[in-house]
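## retry 2 of 3
previous attempt timed out at serialization; input unchanged, resubmitting
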Amino acid sequence: MSDARVHHATAKTSADMRRGFPTGLVAATVVLVGITLWSYWGTIDDLFREWQRNEDYSAGQLVPLVAVFLVWRERKRLRQCRLGPCWWGLILLLLAQAGRFFGLLFVFESAERYSLALMIAGLTLTVAGWQVFRRSFWILSFLFLMVPFPGQIHNRLNGPLQSMSTRGAVFLLEAFGVRVSQQGNVILLDGRIEMAVVEACSGLRMLTAFIIVGAFIAYMIRRARWQKATLLLSSIPVAVVCNMLRLVVTAFLFLMASSEVAEKFFHDFAGLVMMPAAVLIMFGELWLLDKLVLPEDDPERKDEVVIRARPAARH
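## retry succeeded, writing output
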């Protein structure tokens, strides 16, 4: 009799969870999202303008769209999560507002932008609860990639990337037998053609775009967490190598065609060519991991809790 009651209660709970979200929870979510949009509208508008005017971070505008797609993809699992407010989310909300206040006080735009992503995470935890937050943690973390690097980090990355790309391109050109010399960030081809590697050629745009692509692929594949992390971290050297290859191809076009053709390729077509190349390199990494690593159990099944009834003891 007790087993039947437990089974009936469990079935009722599952049915209640499958019916949809409670009306009160939906209303509270709509109100909080509306307040957040109204409060952060200036930050959102500024962030959108930054995506439009700065090519280094133009890929950031894809992040919210990809996040919505990932939530839609996880909709069945999210529906199985137990809904309910979690007051620990208030800590994230307070941290978000503290970061925003810091940005407003010291005119630090990046703090305001990062606080927006943290605010979304805090609202998710506060309104939907721990299970939904845990299930969507990777997606919520992915939102931070939509924010451009702070100015100091941008400047510290741009210079070394520019120098690294120049030296790498010179090394590859010499390996191909091209007479080449380097003067700072200017490459002298065949002693007569100068190819300047300016800041726009540093590869920072590739770096930000490839990190986003690497994070998306890492989320989509069914691999162990360390393999996902390896793939995500490898997007950084992949971006650097692809930018070097772009400079090498551009240099050959300077030598074999004309400066107009070379510059048109570098600015118009190289990005379209390098993105598929980077994706192929990342999938090549996964293929190599398959050959080097022994197969493991399905990592996603480890996150699922399987409850099995014990057989009744025989007397």
